[in-house]
TrEMBL record:
Region (Disordered): 1178-1215, 1440-1578, 1700-1762, 1775-1828
Coiled coil among keywords: yes
NCBIfam families: MobF
Gene source species: Streptomyces chartreusis
A Pfam family this chain is assigned to: TrwC
Organism lineage: Bacteria, Bacillati, Actinomycetota, Actinomycetes, Kitasatosporales
UniProt biased composition (Basic and acidic residues): 1487-1502, 1549-1572, 1736-1762
Record domain TrwC relaxase: where: 9-406
Compositionally biased intervals (Low complexity): 1797-1813
Protein's UniProt name: Relaxase domain-containing protein
Coiled coil: 1278-1308
Length: 1828
């Protein structure tokens, strides 16, 4: 056989080379593995597989090669390759990269363990409480405390020792990383009989068998390379692609098992490395390898046996090694006793236990107690555990094996082993010559029969494996099978079986196809097949469950029996579920009724009541069970005879062959057959029972639990019935006595194991540990319960574990003295039985009767050995009924095992006090459920935890490992849902889109980088780094072309380890820098005034800004030149001197200056003369005055004379004299100053440097080539200078402004180099297929190949179609989570289409995001921003659809209520009338007439009746209908309260005065003339708008109803939709009838063909008979007649074959026209109910449709009248508006004030009334405003 195991990276390879001989040495030329015969250790490994050619390795494998390949994922010769590259100058990284085969193995590290966190918390707590750090001793104590608590939580028990706790703490502290899968270990083990021959034979025999073994391994590996070697690619590995060459593997030879038993086996270690067609190294597809394990194993078994038989002249024979399992092929003549002679550990355990018990007695002087005895048994187990095996020389092993065999069987038996095998071969048929005529068709039918007996659906590998078993059974090794199995398989799959694999909905696309023409998204070996027999059996069972029959018991009889049971069992009364089950089984009117209930629900009790009722009615109850134990349990439960299902069917098969049928197997009308544990029964067998019951008039009842272990045959009938027909389900569990255990078991059963585990763990029902610890623990607890007198059961998954538990229990009983060691007998499981042992028989033996023929030895019976005869026979007593029997020695050796422990299958159905189950990571959830539900008082689970696993890891694995038994029908549906489901289609689309993006980026790179792109695309980092970085850049808003160009030309790539990785890093860095820059701009508040410009606009602006700057710069330069050439300030003697135009006389030429000086001198002399003259004149006048005063001294003039003498001279001058003198002085000073200035200017010019003087003279002195300022007035030159300076300043400002503009433009351009090109692109989440489901980025770019774009569109169209179909399915059966979408709208409406689309998208979201089933809607909002945006859109869509759906439903209900109450009989044109908006919102959106006409007539009539009843009921209850529904939605918020208030206010109060009465009558007339006179202006416009809107909606409704009425009337015409629908039904009914007739015809012709072939074969055999002398036995006329008959038979057979082919074609054609087979019975029944003929059906359909058409016409008329009423109401409102517009202003204001007062008063009054009746918040107003 061949098994497959995973090999972890790291040191997982060390096991294979640890004990090999010369593992690191080269093997000599011609040296074989067998040449290590006498060496100590296993032979070294050898390279094998076609893939080693790619690596260039061969021969022996060294430890360094194993470490490199399996430990590190490198080339086996990595050390050499790395050294060579480093020697050539490569870096260490590049050298390692050159040796790496693809990606390095990944490691998954755990950063912090639970232990580490808790220990840290304990340390911190100690520091807080003690105020100091812990000492070493305290730290050690805290470690132990935390570790012990965590151990208890993890394993559910205390550690056995300090050593175990220490190992646990060390493991927790280490946080050992989880390694990736480095390879797969294919273990090829020769059959046991071959290993025995190899171990005990001579050297020639040994080498021959080893050669056959190697040949078989090679053939198998080559087959695996052809059929099991693929690699996974794409997103999440969704694609499966071909590889180059083949496997890379090493083969290691081992000699013995872990118990040193002979076991020739090789480990073929396959590396998890293959080369893809693109030349890249990848991992191989492990799932495919595991899937092909069974056919590969069968191929090895076939080849090794064939080679051994061919080389040694032997034959093979089938042997049933494990009861209930398929037989295995062993070498004929090698006895079973020789094969099982080496199982000796159980004997050692018993012997060691006895020694320890004797030792205990001697030391203590008394017998050991129960606790001590259990401990001694555990010690014996440890003492006899095999030591860690050390490889020994093969010669030593063979010597030891031979010695032991001779001691047991004698010299002659061992030496004659090969001769005995050859003698057995000589007597074994068939002869090789007879095998040349194997009938492939017959073989295919036999193989198919075997396969569909065990499976409902299957794949090619199952058929191939069975075909190889068939070939081995047929040839027995006489010839090589060759391709015989493949031919048989091809025949089965192409002719005999039915391919149920869903077709690929997506179109074929060459780039996505494999070499064999299949899509890379279709996994190899995933095709599914079934057979017509399986489908027919399932159809028969379902049809029987729908077939009406006469019940077995009348209801009064049943009630009487039930009441009698309830009265007689007051403490165990039937619950509601049990009563329903018993009543359905007894009084049900269906041929088949199924009941389902969890373990402990009281199914047997309910069946007992039903059986009593049947018997009370005079009927007979027959019980059937899938096993003898189940039948026995059922028989005792219902107190009726019960039989094994196989036995019941076998009796009928024998009866059909002519054997008499025993009386107890006969069926009569009214008999009830109860099949218990129906979930474990095959569908074909149940269908056979149903067929027999239907023929006999009996009834069939099925009971079981599909959540428990399923059938080993093709089953699933219970689950199929539960999904298709009404069944009875029990929900209350009665078995368990512990509170909460029933609920926990139901959670485990219903798929909520996580919650169930919590209860079991919290209540101490789960413990964990190593395999031996758990075996000891479960045995100790079981034994403790047994010693306490309780019925107990310990169960395990695997038979080996069961055998080990049996050995422990036996050793305990041996130590306790309960067994007689003097009497022993060998058992089937390799153990020895003693007197007093508990055993179980594993095969039915009807000839061995018990209790005087009342019973017989059955599979699963438990017995106690009372005596062992000297011949090895066992005298046993049944543990249940006490009957005695004798089991022969041969039966004991083949079919008897110890019975202390059992498997889950054998334990299912049993009830004990305590149950114990031993589980591993491979245990199924169904198996764990069975093991946890056997005990009434308690149920315990013992979890085996391997190294690196935790308890929760194992429990989680069990929870996920659900393997329910599915029928073929359900498998077809499930596979279609998987292949055609949105998750699969979307996943494929995502991968195609990813591949298209990759091609797009490659094309883009070639366009941008040109020739340099190829090096990057070819690098390993392109795919993982560059493409991902470009995606992120695009998501950030960058144009990928620009960012790629930017980072590529940033700098060179010299020294890059991987070009792609470096380029990707640069892109990411660029994007990160952009994000940082954006954050910086946001933080600084920097504005970007040019951000809205496009790049082209910005470039043009930059160009213009540059031009303007250039112009400004030129202007400035000209201004600078003018300023530079104009007179300037000078420096003379270190002091600044103004430019000559700014000096007083600077503009004078030199000659003019000289002249001016001369003139100034003259003017000075003249001014001095004038001053002197003025002074002289004044002096003369003063002298004259003084003289006069002195010459006339008079008394009266004394004062004047005194004044002349005392007053200063100047003061005595006259004003005119002073003025003249002052003017003369000023003139003199001015002349002097001018002269000084002129001389200063002259002196300055002389002091100037020559260059300054020359520049001034050039600028000032006229002459040739002088400046334009020469000779110009200085003021004009100064003005020009000021203008030049101003122009220079203006030029500078202009340049500054130009530079600012240019800088901003350049800054924006620089930012755009760094920042994204645009805002972050927003995905379209509102499309028919939103982008969260199917991205479209690749379609929007020119670089994506057009073929890929078209293919993506085609795939998206497929997704859209599937979404539409999914929405329809959801609308038919809305799941619980769809409540958020509201009720399902009526068909044919836009709202219904929106509901379906939204529901389909919601389901796709839930599947994609794995939203729990219990979560409503689309679950919680994701944290990721992009996912959150998609969630928001979809959630809003869900909410809006739900709001609209609920609003429509409420509106429909209200409309129906109002319609029933007559609320629409009046038009809303007067106050107090019903609101017309109710008529609009109450409209029911009608389905299209054509869709409605195709409904079945009886469904239409029942729908009409139901509608009438509903309307009537709603009309009766409308007055009591709560108003809350009317106020919750916008659609229900009708006219505001003020309308009713106004109406109430306008109602006249009772009047007693005639005047008041007259005034009131006048008001009434006024109201009739102006019904809206009291509505304020503000509301009157809203009212008019409302009526206009209502009229428009009513118009739409009327048009819709008129169109519907027209369609209904048209449909009634000849050839219309009604007649077409009936014709379609007629055609389908005819097709169904034709299909059934064709099926019957096919069966008839198949039977005839088989009969003809058998007769022809018999004639041929008769004609071929010869006498002893070689003459034909048949001669003469008789031979002529036989030959003629044979010829006629041949012609008849040909005609029959042709008729059969035609019948099958007709069957296929009818099947296509007949539609879904599940619906056939219902379609035919509906047809009969509708009349049974086309005319009758058409007449009834037309009558129904005529009524509907009449109703539609009437509804259309009503709707049209409603439009007229609303138009009239709008006209009245318009008249009122026109009337008000014509009123005088004062009058209109006064009336408006009165209206508002009236409205306010009415509002207050209504508010008071509402507060008294309904305290609470105010009603909301309608969004459409008030309505009147």
């Amino acid at each position: 056989m061949m098994t497959v195991h995973r090999l972890s990276a790291g040191d997982g390879y060390s096991y294979y080379i640890r004990e090999t001989v010369s593992a690191d040495q080269s093997r000599g030329k011609g040296q074989e593995l067998g040449d290590y015969y006498t060496e100590s250790g296993n032979p070294p490994g050898l390279w094998m597989g076609s893939g080693i050619e790619l690596l260039g390795v061969s021969g022996a494998v060294s430890e360094e090669q194993m470490r490199a390949l399996y430990g590190e994922g490198l080339h086996p010769d990595a050390e050499r390759i790395i050294a060579e590259h480093i020697a050539n100058g490569a870096s260490a990284k590049k050298a390692v990269k050159a040796a790496r085969l693809g990606r390095a193995y990944m490691q998954f590290n755990q950063t912090e363990t639970v232990f580490g966190r808790r220990f840290k918390e304990e340390m911190e707590r100690h520091a807080r409480t003690e105020g100091r750090a812990a000492t070493v001793a305290e730290r050690s104590a805290m470690r132990g405390k935390v570790g012990a608590v965590l151990f208890r939580e993890e394993y559910g028990r205390r550690p056995e020792s300090k050593e175990e706790l220490g190992r646990f703490i060390k493991q927790q502290e280490g946080a050992k990383p989880r390694n990736a899968v480095a390879g797969f270990d294919l273990v090829f083990a020769a059959p046991k009989s071959v290993s025995v021959l190899w171990a005990l034979g001579d050297e020639t025999l040994r080498k021959t068998i080893e050669q056959a073994h190697v040949q078989a391994i090679g053939d198998t590996v080559r087959w695996l390379e052809q059929h099991a070697l693929m690699t996974r690619t794409g997103v999440n590995g969704i694609a499966q692609e071909d590889v180059r060459k083949g496997l890379i593997a090493t083969r290691f030879r081992h000699y013995d098992s872990r118990h040193s038993e002979p076991m020739l086996h090789d480990h073929v270690v396959v590396a998890n490395k293959v080369m893809g067609l693109d030349g890249k190294w990848r991992t191989l597809d492990g799932e495919l390898l595991y899937a092909q394990n069974v056919p590969a194993s069968e191929l090895y078994n076939q080849r090794v046996v064939e080679e051994v038989c061919q080389r040694l002249g032997l034959r093979a024979e089938p042997r049933e090694v494990t009861p209930g399992r398929r037989p295995v092929m062993e070498i004929a003549g090698v006895g079973f006793d020789l094969i099982e002679a080496h199982s000796s550990r159980s004997v050692s355990i018993k012997e060691r236990t006895a020694e320890l018990v004797d030792q205990y007695r001697r030391e203590h002087g008394y017998e050991p107690s129960q606790k001590v005895l259990i401990a001694l048994t555990q010690q014996a187990t440890l003492d006899t555990r095999p030591d860690k095996k050390t490889a020994r020389p093969l010669a030593d092993l063979r010597t030891e094996w031979r010695r032991n065999a001779i001691e047991t069987f004698g010299n002659r038996r061992v030496d004659g082993l090969l001769g005995d095998a050859r003698a057995a071969a000589a007597s074994t048929r068939p002869h090789p010559a007879a095998l040349a005529h194997i009938d492939i068709e017959k073989a295919a039918r036999e193989v198919l029969t075997t396969v569909d007996d065990y499976r409902s659906v299957w794949g090619r590998r199952q058929v191939l494996a069975e075909a190889r078993r068939w070939v081995m059974a047929a040839t027995k090794g006489a010839i090589l099978g060759g391709d015989l199995a493949d031919r048989i398989t091809q025949r089965v799959l192409s002719v005999e079986a039915i391919n149920i694999t869903p077709a690929d909905l997506n179109p074929q696309f060459a780039p996505l196809m494999r070499a064999d023409g299949t899509s890379i998204y279709r996994r190899r070996e995933t095709e599914l097949f079934t057979s017509t027999a399986v489908l027919a059996a399932e159809d028969r069972i379902v049809a029987a469950a729908r077939t009406d029959v006469i019940p077995a018991v009348s209801k009064p009889t049943y009630k009487r029996i039930e009441e009698a049971y309830q009265q007689s069992h007051p403490d165990r009364r039937l619950d509601a579920g049990q009563r329903a089950l018993a009543e359905a089984f007894a009084t049900g009117e269906k041929l088949v009724i199924a009941g389902i209930g969890p373990a402990g629900a009281g199914k047997t009790t309910a069946m007992k009541v039903a059986a009593d009722a049947v018997r009370a009615a005079g009927g007979r109850v027959v019980g059937l069970g899938p096993s003898a134990r189940a039948a026995s349990e059922l028989s005792s439960g219902i107190e009726s005879p019960a039989y094994v299902l196989h036995e019941w069917i076998g009796a009928r098969e024998r009866a059909r062959q002519g054997h008499p049928l025993r009386t107890e197997f006969e069926l009569g009308a009214g008999d009830v057959i109860i099949i218990d544990e129906a979930g474990m029964a095959g569908s074909k067998r149940i269908a056979a029972v149903v067929a027999e019951a239907e023929a006999a008039g009996a009834l069939v009842r099925l009971i079981g639990d599909p959540a428990q272990l399923a059938a080993v045959e093709s089953g699933g009938a219970l689950r199929l019935l539960s999904n298709n027909v009404p069944i009875v389900e029990l929900e209350t569990v009665h078995r368990f006595r512990s509170a909460g255990e029933a609920a926990a078991s139901l959670m485990l059963r219903s798929g909520e194991p996580e919650k169930a585990w919590t209860w079991y763990i919290d209540n101490g029902r789960v413990v964990a540990g190593t395999r031996e610890q758990m075996q000891q623990q479960i045995f100790a607890d079981w034994q403790r319960d047994m010693d306490a007198g309780k019925s107990a059961m310990m169960m395990a998954d695997h038979r080996i574990t069961v055998s080990e538990l049996n050995a422990l229990a036996q050793a305990y009983r041996m130590g306790a003295g309960d067994l007689d060691r003097s009497q022993t007998a060998g058992l089937h499981d390799g153990l020895q039985a003693h007197r007093g042992d508990l055993i179980v028989t594993r095969k039915n033996d009807r000839k061995n009767v018990v209790r005087g023929g009342k019973d017989f030895v059955k599979n699963g019976d438990q017995w106690v050995i009372e005596r062992i005869t000297h011949d090895g026979d066992l005298v046993v007593r049944h543990t249940d009924h006490g009957g005695r029997s004798m089991l022969t020695a041969d039966y004991v050796q083949r079919w008897v095992e110890l019975g202390y422990a059992s498997t889950g299958h054998r334990g299912q159905g049993a009830t004990v006090a305590t149950g114990s189950g031993l589980v591993t990571r491979t245990t199924t959830r169904e198996g764990a459920y069975v093991q946890l539900t056997r005990g009434r008082e308690s149920n315990r689970l013992y979890v085996i935890v391997e190294e690196g696993q935790t308890l929760h890891d194992v429990l989680d694995a069990i929870a996920r490992n659900a393997q329910p038994s599915l029928s073929a029908t359900e498998s077809i549906q499930a596979e279609q849902e998987r292949a055609w489901g949105i998750p699969q289609l979307a996943a494929e689309y995502t991968d195609v889109h990813d591949r298209a993006l990759s091609l797009r980026y490659q094309s883009m790179a070639r366009n941008v980088l040109h020739a340099g792109a190829e090096a990057f695309i070819a690098s390993e980092g392109w795919r993982r780094s560059v493409e991902g970085a470009l995606k992120r850049a695009e998501a950030a808003g960058f144009t990928p072309e620009r960012v790629l160009r930017t980072v590529f030309f940033e700098r060179d790539f010299v020294g890059a380890e991987d070009l792609g990785d470096v380029l990707g890093w640069r892109i990411d860095r660029h994007v990160d820098a952009a994000r940082g820059k954006l954050a910086e701009l946001a933080a600084d508040g920097t504005s970007r005034p040019l951000a809205d410009l496009t790049d082209a606009q910005l470039d043009r602006l930059a160009e213009r800004a540059g031009e303007r700057r250039t112009q400004a710069l030129g202007t400035l330069r000209q201004a600078d030149a003018r300023v530079a050439s104009q007179p300037r300030t000078l420096i003379v003697d270190g002091l600044p001197v103004p430019a000559w135009p700014n000096r007083s006389f600077g503009d004078l030429t030199n000659s003019q200056l000289s002249q001016a000086i001369a003139q100034a001198r003259r003017d000075g002399r003249s001014a001095a003369a004038q001053l002197a003259l003025a002074q002289q004149q004044a002096q003369r006048e003063l002298d004259a005055e003084q003289h006069a005063a002195v010459s006339r001294p008079r008394t009266d003039d004394r004062g004047a004379a005194e004044a002349v003498r005392t007053v200063p001279r100047n003061q005595r001058l006259s004003a005119g004299q002073r003025t003249a003198i002052e003017q003369a002085r000023r003139d003199e000073r001015a002349v002097i100053e001018r002269l000084i200035a002129l001389k200063k200017e002259q002196r300055l010019r002389k002091e100037l440097t020559w260059i300054d003087r020359a520049r001034e003279e050039w600028q000032r002195e006229p002459g040739p080539h002088a400046a334009h300022t020469a000779g110009v007035d200085g003021d004009r030159v100064a003005a020009e200078m000021r203008a030049n300076l101003l122009g220079q300043e203006e030029a500078r400002e202009r340049l500054k402004r130009a530079e600012v503009v240019e800088q901003r433009v350049r800054a924006e351009q620089r930012l755009r180099v760094v920042l994204p090109d645009a805002a972050v692109p927003e995905a379209d989440y509102t499309a028919a297929v939103p982008e969260w489901l199917a991205a479209r980025a690749a379609e929007r770019d020119q670089h994506t190949p057009q073929a890929w774009v078209e293919h993506l569109r085609e795939r998206r169209a497929v997704i859209e179609q599937r979404l539409a179909m999914a929405g329809q399915i959801l609308a038919d059966e809305p799941p619980h989570w769809a409540q958020a979408l509201g009720p399902v709208p009526e068909g044919g409406t836009d709202l219904r289409a929106e509901w379906e689309r939204t529901a389909a998208l919601a389901e796709a979201w839930r599947a994609q995001r794995r939203v729990p089933d219990t979560a409503p809607g689309i679950g919680r909002r994701p944290a990721r921003e992009q996912d959150a945006a998609a969630w928001d859109v979809l959630n809003n869509q869900v909410a809006e659809t739900g709001r609209r759906s609920r609003a429509t439903q409420v509106a429909q209900r209200r409309g129906e209520h109002l319609a029933a109450a007559g609320a629409f009989q009046q038009t809303p044109t007067r106050r107090g009338d019903a609101d017309p908006h109710a008529a609009v919102t109450a409209q029911r959106t009608e389905a299209t007439a054509r869709a409605e006409l195709k409904q079945e007539p009886e469904r239409e009539m029942s729908a009409d009746t139901a509608e009438q009843v509903t309307v009537k009921a709603e009309a009766e209850t409308i007055v009591d209908a709560p108003s809350a529904d009317m106020d919750t939605l916008d659609a229900e918020q009708e006219a505001p309260a003020r309308t009713a208030q106004t109406t109430a206010a306008d109602e006249p109060a009772p009047q007693h005065d005639d005047t008041d009465r007259e005034r009131h009558q006048g008001d009434v007339r006024h109201a009739e003339e102006r019904p809206y006179a009291d509505i304020p202006d503000a509301d009157l416009g809203d009212t008019l708008a409302y009526y206009a809107e209502a009229a428009e909606k009513a118009q739409e409704l009327a048009a819709s109803k008129e169109a519907k009425a027209a369609d209904l009337v048209a449909a009634l015409q000849p050839g219309g939709a009604v007649e077409q629908g009936v014709d379609e039904r007629t055609a389908r009914v005819q097709a169904i009838e034709d299909l059934r007739a064709a099926s019957a015809r096919v069966n008839e012709l198949s039977t005839r063909q088989d009969r003809q072939q058998r007769v022809a074969a018999a004639i041929e055999e008769r004609l071929a008979e010869t006498s002893a002398f070689g003459r034909h036995t048949v001669r003469g006329d008789e031979r002529t007649q036989l030959e003629q008959r044979l010829f006629d038979l041949g012609a008849d057979t040909e005609r029959t074959a042709e008729q059969l082919r035609e019948a099958r074609r007709a069957q296929e054609t009818s099947a296509q026209r007949a539609g879904n087979p599940v619906e056939h019975d219902e379609v035919l029944a509906a047809w009969q109910r509708s009349g049974g003929s086309r005319e009758s059906v058409l007449e009834r359909t037309r009558a129904v449709q005529q009524r509907r058409a009449d109703g539609a016409v009437k509804e259309a008329g009503t709707a049209r009248r409603e439009v007229t009423s609303l138009d009239q109401a709008a006209a009245v409102v318009r008249r009122e508006l026109n009337h008000r517009d014509g009123q005088p202003y004062q009058q209109r204001v006064a009336e408006e004030a009165r209206r508002i007062q009236v409205q306010q008063a009415a509002a207050l009054q209504q508010q008071a009334q509402q507060s008294a009746q309904h305290p609470g918040p105010d009603d909301h107003q309608s969004r459409n405003g008030p309505k009147r």
